[in-house]
Structures are given as C-alpha cells and as structure tokens.
Amino acid sequence: MSIATKYNPQETESKWYQYWLDNGFFKAKANPEKKPYTIVIPPPNVTGVLHMGHMLNNTIQDVLIRRARMKGMEACWVPGTDHASIATEAKVVAMLKEKGIDKKNISREDFLKHAWEWKEKYGGIILEQLKKLGASCDWDRTRFTMEEDLSAAVIDVFVDLFNKGQIYRGIRMVNWDPKGKTALSDDEVIFKEVRSKLYHIKYQIEGTQDFLTIATTRPETIMADVAICINPNDSRFTHLKGKRAIIPLINKSIPIIEDDYVDMEFGTGCLKVTPAHDLNDYEIGLRHKLEVIDILNDDGTLNEKAQILVGEDRFIARKKIAKLLAEVDQLVKEEDYMSNVGHSERTDAVIEPKLSLQWFLKMDQITKPALENVMNDQIQLHPAKFKNMYRSWMENVRDWCISRQLWWGHRIPAYYLPSGEIVVANSPEKALAIAQEKYDATLTIKDLRQDEDVLDTWFSSWLWPISVFDGFKDPENEDIKYFYPTNDLVTAPEILFFWVARMIMAGYEYRGQMPFKNVYLTGIVRDKQGRKMSKSLGNSPDPIDLIEQYGADGVRTGMLFSSPAGNDLPFDEKLVEQGRNFSNKIWNAFRLVKGWEIDPKLDGSHNAAAISWFENRLNQALSEIEEHFDKFRISDALMTTYKLVWDDFCSWYLEMIKPAYQQPIDQQTYDKTIEIFEQLLKILHPFMPFITEELWHQIKERSIDQSLIIADWPSARAFDIADIQGMELTFEVVSQIRNIRASKGISPKVELELIIKTTQQDKYIQYQNIITKLANVESISFGDEAANSLSFVIKGDEFFIPVAGEVNLEEEKANIIAELEYTKGFLNSVMKKLSNEKFVSGAPEQVVANEKKKQADAEAKIKALEESLAKLK
Fold first, then answer.
1. What is the CATH number of domain 190-346?
2. How far apart are the C-alpha atoms of 59 and 559, rounded to whole Å?
3. Other Cβ atoms within 10 Å of 564 Cβ, number
4. 534 contact partners, CB below 8 Å, separation of at least 6
5. Of 28, 430, 444, 856, which is least surrounded by CB within 10 A?
6. What pTM, to 2 d.p., does this model score?
C-alpha cells in the first residue's frame, strides 16, 4: 500500500467516520459479559450550533468513551438535544416576525406547529457538526427532551411531586425577564457589574416645608413607593417617626416607617420602599403589611398604575423621571455608581423582581441526599475545589420556580375548574375523572381549562440520565438496569446548579441512586485577552472552519493541550496548529519507517539497548497516563502521550535505530518498531481517532473486527527505571555535544573525541554506541581533562572535547558561570519545595523522592562546575 506524502485530514476523516458508522462500532446494548461504561451528553439546545465550549466538552467525552471501548467495556454515549424553551421560542417568534406574523395574533396550536417545523429544520444541526469532530455517540439512541416518552416522564414527575406535596402554586417575588416575558429561577440570573447612576431625590415631609433626601438607582419606580423607611437606631431621623412624606411628581402621601434592615451608611440612610419591584422591599412590606403597587407591564413598560409616562420603557422612563424631578427642584444630584445587576441568562435582558403567581418545587428535603452524597464523595466533582461552591448553593437554595410564561415546552398538567379548584393529572381525561369524583359529577371535559404555562426547561433535563433509558416509562427495563447509574458526566461549571445538582436530586428521588459517579467540570474557553468566547463579541472562531483547516485530530489535541479540569482554556489558534503539526509528525514518522528497506540477513543486536529503553519508557508513560485518567487529568494524559511520541519515539528512538543513508534495516528491529508504533497508535486513538485508524490500516490489511477503534487498550507492565534514567543521561550528553557544535560552528559531519571524567564508567559504557551514533563521536575514553578542550558538566561528571586551535578561556569561563548560576537557581527552587512541610507531608512518596534526587544531582553538578571554574582561573 503506497503512503501519501502528505496527510489529508478531510479525505481520511469522512472515510473512517462512515466506516465506524457502517460497522456499528458506536452502538451499545446491555451485555452481561461486559462491564458498562456510560456517558450522557449534556444535551445542547436545538437552537445551537457548535461553539468552542461544545468542542472542548465533547472532545473530552469522546476521549473517555473511546478509551473505555478499547478497555473492553460496553461503551454507551447517549446523544440528544434540549428543547430550550426561552431560546427556541425567541427564535420562532423572530422567524414569524420576518414572515409578518405576530405571535399574539395566532393560536397556541398554530405557534407550536411553526415551532416543531423550525425544530425539524434546524434542531439537528449541532449533532451533525459533532460527527465532524469524531464524536462516537450511539446515534440510534438520540433523544429529544420533548419527544413523546420523555415528555410523558416530565408530566409524570410533576404529578408525582404535586401529589407528594412538593409542588405548590403561590404568589412570590420572582425574577422576571421582560424580553422573554417569563419568570426565571435564581440560577438563570447572571449578575454583571454595570455602570449606573445614584439619584438623590427630595421627598417633602407632609405638612412642613422640610424635605428628606433618598438615594436610589431606580427613580422610575417612585410611583410604586408605599413607604419611606428609616433605621430605628439612626438618631438623625428620630424627629420623623410617625410622620408621612409626599412622593414627588404624583404628590401621594406615604408613611415613614422604621426597620433595622436599612443600612445607615448607604446613600442618605433612608430607603424608599417599593414592594412590587425589589425583593428586600417586598420582605419589609410583608413585615409592615404594606400595599403592593406593580407599575410595570410584563414587557418592562410603565402601566396605568404609574399615573405618568404610561407606556414608556423602564429605562427611557428613568431618564425622563430624572429630568422631571430636576424641573421641580426635587433632584438633588446624580452620581456615578457601579451596581451588580441581574441579567437573564437566556436573553441578557435586565431582570425585574416581580410579584407573580407561579408554580414552585420545594427544595428543603429533595436537596438533602444530593448534598450529602457529594460531600461524602460518593459522587466526585473534578476538580474538588467546586465542592465548597456546591455546598454553599445547596445549603442556601430557595424553592425552584418551575413555571414559564411560554408556549414552547412541557405544558403544566394542572386543570382549573369553574369553581376555581385545581386538579393535577397526566391527561385531561384523568383530570376529569378526578374532578368528577372529588368535586362535581356533572363536569365535562369542556369545563376544564389547562394551565397556560410550561415548565422550566431544566425540569425536563434534570431527568435526563433516567429518561434517556426510559426509566420512567419502564423502570425495570434492561437498559436502565444495565447502563444506570452512568459513569462520568462532562459539563461546564456554570450549569453545576442548573443541571448537575438537579440531576443528582432526581437520581436519588426516582432511582434511589446517584445518576453518575464522576462530574468532570471543564473550564471556559477564553480568547487571548481572557474574554469568554462568544458570537456577540466576535472573538470565537467557527469550529467547523477550524476542523476544515487543521483537521479534527489537530483541533481535538489543540483544545486539550491546555485545558486542565475546572481551569479556563486560554485559546490560541497556535494550539490547533500545534495539533496539526503533531498529526504531520506522526504521519511522517510512519512514512520514514515504512520507507526502510529490510535485509533479513542483517543482525539487529546493536539496536537492543534502544528497543529495551523504549519499551521501558512506553510502560512508564502508560502507568502515568493511567494515573492521569484515573484522576481526570485529561490534558496531562495527552501531554504525556505527546512527549512519548514526539520526543521519545520520533526524536530519539527513530534516530537511534535509523539505518545509514540508503542502507537497509534488519528484520528484527523493523518488526519491533512496527509493534511499538502499533502500541503508540492505540494510546493516541482516543485523542486522535482519524489519523490513528488510517495508519493502523496502512500498517497492514486488517479485517473489520481488527479495527483500531475496538483494539485492546495497552496495559502498563513493569519497567526498569535504571534503564530509563541511564538513557536520559545519554540524551543529555548527546544534547550537550550538539549544543557545543552549534555554538562553536562545528559541522555535524565532523567526528569528535569525547573524554569523560567519572567514577562510574559503567553507566556510559552501556550506552556508548548510542552516544557515538547520535553525537557523531569517533571515540569515547575515560580520564582527566585533555589539553585545549571544550567542556561541560552533567550531574557530577565532567566531559571534554579536544579541539584544534586555541580555546577561548574567557568564553568558557562565562559559559561555566552562566551554567553555575542557573543550577544554583534550580537548586534553590527544589530546596523551597523540600523545606515546605505541607509539600513534604502531603505529596506522594515518589514525588518527594524525585525532588531529593534533583537536589543531589544539582549539588553534584555545582561542585563539578566550581572545580572546572577553579582550573580556568
């Protein structure tokens, strides 16, 4: 089989992805002979297209699932999409607007028809894009949160929790999104630092010519004021107790009340109380039995209760009110002010606190097992630093507002009777039966009016690990019993509470089990300036364009090169360029090996040391890679693999065994090298599936059941650390000689003589053939310094290279001094670690031992350098 000169990712990727699909390699089924390994995808919104966060998240999932498949597990990765109520409804409303259709002018049924058409047309785009990345999901298992069975599960859970007394309907202060015109849960509010103004407004004391000044960021709500509040301990305002004040512009009289909530240090120390438009004011209102006046429409415009500026947007009204106040001399001043303002996570609109009749899920009991089992590490968060954040949220969580004022979503299964009673049931027919039995036998289906609202999107996705396996429809089915609990969840920290915590609640509530064992929290992909990548900022490359330019393998490795769990990824296109270069390096290494002519008569014993070393190094790397995977250090696992392939295999091993120009290689070395290459392809496969599968089949013709995707993952065997360290010393000697050649302008073709001053000759004799070959050294001898020599020091040993002509002693001295200063600095950094009791007592024994060895080597090297320097003085 001829090998192309250049690697062509586009041709390779489409070919092998189709091959994997055609042969069912991604499919999973319950198999008692195998251990299950399950991942459920964080379902992307049907509105979504692939962005850099998806790329990182799904690359990690694919790495985990491919490795599990190679380890002989029944690897099941369930894909799917989320209906995303707010985002999708906004898209459909915008689409209808372009067609000249207003949502208000069509029926719910017509709107939903348009929404389903939109979903069918655009909803699968992101899953198709994931295939370009190489995602090895079981596509036959693709689920959608609003498909029939999953919708039934959502309704069943609502009914069940309502019947348990966990769901209730009530008037509460909620987060209102004026753009989406819906309530939001606390988790869907993103707080941002916003530059605003603090307005100092004069309120006249009733019956006097005196004024009270109040500072507020929201002058547009003064018409909804129902009281002025002072702190009972504030001596400045004792004279105002029991008096009343006049609201500017509308001249309404309101009481002056006392409450120790008021911060005497903020603003002027007085607070205007607007219960309808501030959560804290609402709490004060409850304590003092104050009226609630809501002056805002659902879209954030002023209503008739405002009396002035009716119909104006709240932010325009703010400026106009300030102007009106100034005209009547009741605006004392405006000052710049930075405030923390809540924004809708979906629409980015500024949130309005709003008193609203909504459905809520009680969170006091359902959260308990979800908190306990993360805190005791039954479920592990990676990195563990997120545990404290998780605990804080779970211990302070408020009841979950689960209703949304939308049409796209799971409609709340609550039915209102003419008498005002509410019946909750799975269907109108069941609701009618309950209503007839409980309230009125003469009722008909026409007498029932279903709640107009839909459920929060997260109320469906919190059931995802159970519902994707039909665990509600058929709780004892083969799939749910085999694949649940799932193994690992890979997701972003920003939905730790939206989704992860709630899935854990649902898992314990409905299966009595955790939904997954490990939660790997990725970082946020940021640009070079540290900004989160987003379309609105225009700082995010198109992932599909990156794949076309650099190949999927290049992009996958580029994303992982610097993305440790929980830490943000500072993305730079140079990373994917590095990933593409890695693909090319592997391709060229294979071309080199396959290009060698083989002579079966040749003896390969001279390569025994190189082969022995690489096998030891391979097993050492494998043990490191296993540990990295076990601790969810995916980026570290890739870097260990990268160094093994690029440095150890390509830069050193191939150079050691490479035959002379146009000379053949022996059969034994060639076969062993191909065997090693196959092991490397196996380790690389989860990270770089396409190029590895291509090369696997380039090595030799293989049947379908011999494909790399299902090849055995290599197991780490025992390795000889002394051999590895001996070869590392050899490489250091070679590198120093090459550096001397480069710095002195000595051609690589000139053979050099090497004299080593050491008390341990054996450690060099064993590898002298490799030194002579890689450094082009004619002879190696042991003894003292030769006249007119260039020198270097490694650990405590001195090396001399005799050269023709005079050696520049001053230059040599400068080099030794520089090396001495560097080594002393290195020793200081090691000693800092070793003098840190926390490090010595907490680090693994092997890590501490490695640091002590570094200390000993550095001390020996310093001693030898100082001796060399003394000779030159």
1. 3.90.740.10
2. 8
3. 16
4. 540
5. 444
6. 0.85
